[in-house]
Amino acid sequence: MKCRRCGEVAQVALPSHHTGFCPTCFLDFFRAQVARAIRRHRMFGPDERVLVAVSGGKDSLALMHVLGEMGYQVEAMHIDLGITGSSEPIRAFVEDFCRTRGHVLHVVETATDGLAIPDVKRTVRRPICSVCGKIKRHWFNRFAFEHGFAAMATGHNLDDEVARLFANTLRWDAAYLGGQGPTLPGEGLFVRKVKPLCRLTEFETAAYCFFSGITHWHEACPYSGGASFTSHKRLLADLEQTSPGTKMAFYENFLHTGRPAFAAAGKAGYGELQACAECGYPSSGEICGVCRVRRMVAGADAT
Fold first, then answer.
1. pLDDT, tens digit (0-9, with 9 covering 90-100), for 189-207
2. Which terminus of the chain is more exposed, N or C, with fewer CB under 10 A?
3. How far is residue 68's CA from residue 147's CA, in Å, rounded to a whole number?
4. 251 close to 180: Cβ distance less than 8 angstroms
5. Which residues, at least 6 apart from 243, have a Cβ–Cβ distance to it below 8 Å?
């Protein structure tokens, strides 16, 4: 196979696009897909400060690197979850990545807020991934708002988005379907949330890291076993292999046709929000979910 753009030998085959690229042209393709997502979904402009959630995995590092390459005003944020034997090396890895490439890095430690994830896992009788996700979303948004960022960017790729869409469709979760998309507008204390990699697959972000010389963290979180999205991704990967382009078509058609139909349900699903009595951030009840978890952990530690 020859590169679609320059005619050299292609090293990356992209069946979903019916094409292939040499390394140099693939990097151009990757940047073009990010630029298209930012422009089409009105994510942010060149004069706006963007906070990038950096975990150390390939997607978040690819996102941080490509936005920096494209000249956007980006700073990184990493959340240290306080998991012994896991959080320390990941944090050091992210710090080294940002220091080497000249990125500003902010680190938030959940343990400082009384929410070390091992303590949360021992206390809360719910799937830890769900609770951890809530805590991380709270702190990403809170830090972005309090430090004046226009938008908060995460490394969710096309595979992530399609797996979530598939799960929400299986449940016909109207509220989540109405709110899912690559851009969630900011309002009040909520900062705009964006997903610039929404047009790119995990394979493509991995290839971008490889050709850009980006080493990423490979080990999974020790608490992540049994996540349902993993099986959904496998099923969708099999479908994509049989019918290349299916994932992109599913997602794009949803954004064009499905999401508008669920938009009202998405707004209603959150109900009337009020300021949390403890942290002041929006909550559906008197105390937000994160502050309730903190109370539970503190109560367990006191007994």
1. 999 999 999 999 999 999 9
2. C
3. 19
4. no
5. none
